[in-house]
Amino acid sequence: MTTPAPVFSITRSEDPTWETAPYVIRKGEEVFLEGIQLREEAEDLCTLLNQPPLKIVPIDRRQRWLSGGRGGRHREAGSILIEAAMLIPLFIFLFLSAADLILAETAKSNVGYLAQNAANCTLQPGCNPAAYVSGAASGLSMNNTNLSVTAGKGTATVNYTTTPIGPFFPSLTLKSTAQAVAP
After folding, report:
1. Least confident of 110-114, 162-166, 171-175
2. Cα 59 to chain center, whole Å?
3. Which of 20-34, 72-86, 102-116, 159-173 has the highest mean pLDDT?
4. Which of these, 13, 61, 131, 158, is most buried using a 10 Å CB contact count?
5. Total domains in the fold of the chain
6. What is the pLDDT of residue 111?
7. What is the extent of the structural domain holding 108?
8. Does 106 map to a domain?
9. What is the 3-state secondary structure (H, E, C) of 114-161?
10. Mean pLDDT throughout 116-128?
11. How confident is the model at residue 3, as a pLDDT?
12. Are residues 49 and 105 in the same domain?
């Protein structure tokens, strides 16, 4: 087996701008790499560049794990199932918690609205605050069995107990007291 003739060679640049790094590696007559400070470094690079490649691997002959074939993905199938089994309950918890918080905040707003309207109802002749609140609560999709009203002259207090969707939060008792606004 014969050694191929070297393709890369070393020359010293005559350009004064390259005074601190004068060595140049050429590929034939063309400059391949310039600005090398030491001759030994240039010789090592030139020797490395002139070596034949150790092994050429054709693209279609690569091992399957390199191309993401059966060897790589097949082993990950079980880990994806385990990760999903851990993450799905977490997403369910987050979804139910967010829904419970939204419903509790909506109920808090509705209880304030009902208390204000019940207090205004106490000033109107013939208006029953408990019946008014019961009818308005059903229109707001609130459970009437969890609702209680205490009304006096110009004031009203409404208590409402929420029912959470998920098992993560306890029931909340919301209370709102309001003063009537004179017309």
Report:
1. 162-166
2. 37
3. 102-116
4. 158
5. 2
6. 93
7. 100-179
8. yes
9. HHHHHHHHHHCCCCCHHHHHHHHHHHCCCCHHHEEEEEECCEEEEEEE
10. 90
11. 63
12. no
Please report whether residue 93 resides in a domain.
no
User: Does residue 157 contact residue 175 with C-beta atoms inside 8 Å?
Assistant: yes
Same domain? 49 vs 112: no
Decide which of 55, 72, 90 is a domain's last residue: 55
Both tokens assigned to 165: 């969707």
User: Among residues of the chain, what percentage have pLDDT more than 70?
Assistant: 85
Place of tokens 């997403």: 91
Kindly report the average pLDDT of the chain as a whole number.
83
Give the distance from CA 135 to its chain's centroid: 43
Residue 74 lies in a domain: no
Mean pLDDT of 118-131: 90
Residue 35 lies in a domain: yes
Cβ atoms of 10 and 39 within 8 Å: the answer is yes
Which single residue is written with the structure tokens 């918690």? 97
Type of residue found at 175: K
- 72: which 2 tokens? 């790589």
Amino acid identity of residue 15, one-letter, is D
Do both 111 and 46 map to the same domain? Answer: no
